[in-house]
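PROTOCOL LOG
Step 1. Enter all chains and additional molecules of the complex.
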Amino acid sequence: MCVPAGIRRYAGILVAALICAATAALPASAQQTPFVPEDFKYGTHEDKGTLRFCLDPRDPEWRIAQDIADAIASALLLTPEPKIVSDPIVTAGWDSLYRHFLKDCDIYFGFKLIPGGYPRWLALSRPYYDAAYVLAVQDPDWNALSDIPLDKAIGSAIGTTADFAFIKYRESMPAGARWRRFPMANNEAALQALKGGTVAAALVWGPAVWAIQQADPAYAGLRLISPSPLPVATLGVGAAMLANETFLRSSLDQAIGSLAADGTLAAILARHHFPGTIETSP
Amino acid sequence: MIPFRLLASAMIVTPLLAAPLSSAQAQDGQMANPAEKMRPVTDDMLKKPDDGDWLMWRRTYNGWGYSPLDQINKENVKNLQLAWSWSLTSGATETTPLVHDGVLFIFNYGDKVQALNAATGDLIWEYRRDLPEDLVAAGGNNLAKRNIAIYQDKLIVATSDAHIIALDAKTGQLVWDNQTADWSKGWRYTGGPFVANGVIVQGMTGCGNAEPGGCFVTGNDPQSGKELWRVYTIARPDDPKGGDSWNGLPLDSRFGASAWISGSYDPDQNLVFQGVGQPYPWIAEMRGTRPHEEGHGHESLYSDSTLAIDPKTGELKWYHQYLEDDTWDLDYVYERILVDLPVNGADRKLLVTTGKLGIIEAIDRTNGEWLWATETVPQNVVSGIDSKTGKKTINEAAIPHIGQTTVNCPADPGGRGWPATAYSPKTQALYLPLNEFCSNTTPQPLDQGQVYTGGGRATFARVPVPNSDGNIGRVDAVKLTDQSTMWSHRQRSPMTSAVLPTGGGLVFGGSWDRWFRAFDDTTGDVLWQIRTNNAVNSFPITYEVDGKQYVAVAVGNGSSAARSWATLTPEITNPDGGSALWVFALPSQTQ
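Step 2. Run joint prediction.
Step 3. Record the structure below.
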């Protein structure tokens, strides 16, 4: 298949042919797309004037993404065609994501805009909101990381951008005079360790606290304190798509920009009491 | 499950053809069903298999991967030709056929198991596992298995949905099915089982950040499938041997140590030797074992170790760790070769293994004492090895750090990967399929999406070794008596299959460029080669039926390791589909 479906749908034959030529000029090795035996089985999506997007209920923020996706579809004058992903496996690799692009959707919501964090065959939209990593504690006397005694353990969701900053900061402290860092499997595990007393604080993605407090009243008492002396780590969240969907990406970015400027995205976050911010500059 | 007898159904639908074809078919062996006369596989057979059989992953408990068959030899191998072939399910092959009493068993990608007439390639039965739709949809390398096992009247299979099952070896009927773990939590099998002293031994893999506490090895009853014991490959905090080896981290912060390759067994000691892979995440700074905390060990036991396990009780007798606190994804999980050879003038019972670093290491398999090491491919991770203890000095410049790009050789798929080395008693040499390359390693965050991490523990930008002549693939022959290199065959294409030495003085092996070759075991000269239809990416075997020797090898695309090696040879491309089993033999007049 030379002409990507999304490009065909949005831009017509001439633009598609130009982009196809540009894509074909890239060496195959540079793309490093996942291996899919018998990819013909996935076929080609028929153009129905729809915006096909994947939403993943494993992502606690997926309801927010759903509202944003509907708003984007409306802005593009397309009919929203959501695919609610039902994969049960708790973690997945890029291969699985690639198959969803072949089979289910052109856009997959819920990815952090981490520089250099994606393979070349993937592209990310501009962020539809920003959110911060936070430091959650139960102790009422602590207002910043610097208030936490150095003999305490900090539970950190493993390998996040904020965790990387914490790791580097710890390494700048003398041995024997730095907090212990317990890397936890994910945000939820870090918050559970905080609740269970294994760690004194949890360094996690802010929306994860919002999600767990909504799901379980036992977490209502968690306090968010300043990560100082660590800087506040903020990341944009956007939608992923195949890198050759250049026209789709451009259209999506324009729609997100419009929805940010007219207050639609901010209204969605407010409706969900969601701890995110909207970037309104173009 | 769809077990059936092809021959019976063929006779029903083509009754008019059956009679006139019967004599010819009988002559070709097509009408005979060797499974009907197949003998149960006993413990004694596993200890000393018939020369013509291939009863376990590396053929014998000692892990040699060697066959004494010598009908195909240095003089006549030039006449080797295709005897029959069989299409396999498209996808990664990585498989090892088993052969017993003229029946060849093979695991296909996606958990299809077949029994074939080993002389003709005719299907005897087929078992298709009813895998969860989401598991199949996820695809990938996880639907391949490197080996299966045969014991008594049963074929033992580790499935992609983390079960161990037994099939009736004669019919393919499911006998029992035992779930070990929940595949949706990330547990999976990619290696296969073996049976030691009447117990099925199977290693678990997929123990990433969704599985705190890491992986394990199980022992199961072959009659019922019931799990008898479980040995954790990550030391628990209260473990007196290795509990305090994780830099003071609690169990919930210890990840990895997959046991994704089958082990070896020493019947004299009643000890199983199981390899264990690296800790997760790959970068030590991320998993919290660097920087080192005073008062705590930081070896990350039992990663990158040999575990000596009593298969009857599951007791961990001893361990030997080869690489402390691995931070490069450089497993020491591969085959354990058991061989008795002199060391410094004294006879020793060796256990020889080679990790991704390409360093061949020998320990005493009675107690884990380190004996010697010798290097093969270029590497810059280990700058020194203590000649008495084997303790390695690490090149600090090769240690990855967050916010930096460092160079390590070899790269993450390894100077050697899962394609197994093999030992020939004829030459006392270890034969190794190797690849030369390095990596520019940059740690990356893990939480791009809530679920999709991309395995992004680090970005490994693979590059040639410094001053490379362009050759990536190698086959080395190293004399284990003095660790001298007998020969080294070098080639552009990565080596992607295990090697197979035989009594005929040959070493078979294959590569990413679809060539399957026979080397002279003493000189490395290429004596025969054939271009197959896809990457030679599995464990070749040889066997004998009715006095005729065959060589079998599976080919196919999709193995993540092979595709990683191939990133440095982008000019070599292979078809996406077309996995197949190729079986070779000599023409009758040249035997």
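Step 4. Note key features.
Chain B touches chain A through 61 residues (CB under 8 Å).
The two ends of chain B are 40 Å apart (CA to CA).
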